[in-house]
Design a protein that fits this description.
Elements (H helix, E strand, L loop, with lengths): L1 H12 L6 H15 L3 H33 L1
């Protein structure tokens, strides 16, 4: 993932030969983006739990619809 991010950034600047310092800085920023603070993690967990509930409801509805369609 780090290599892909650095290659995309080098394309946008138009300089394929980058200084190693610049690459390390871009990797650092990418690592900082990947690190999520704990309060955001709890929000993300709540979102995934809600989406899982919605998915389970949709599955149960589709299963209950099938016998009525066959009849």
């Amino acid at each position: 993932m780090k290599l892909k991010i650095s290659s995309i950034k080098s394309r946008s600047t138009g300089s394929p030969s980058k200084n190693p310092i610049e690459i390390s800085n871009s990797e650092r920023s990418a690592n900082q983006k990947n690190q999520v603070p704990p309060y955001k993690k709890s929000k993300m967990r709540q979102k995934t739990a809600k989406s899982n509930k919605i998915n389970s409801n949709q599955i149960s509805l589709s299963q209950s619809d099938q016998p009525t369609q066959s009849n």
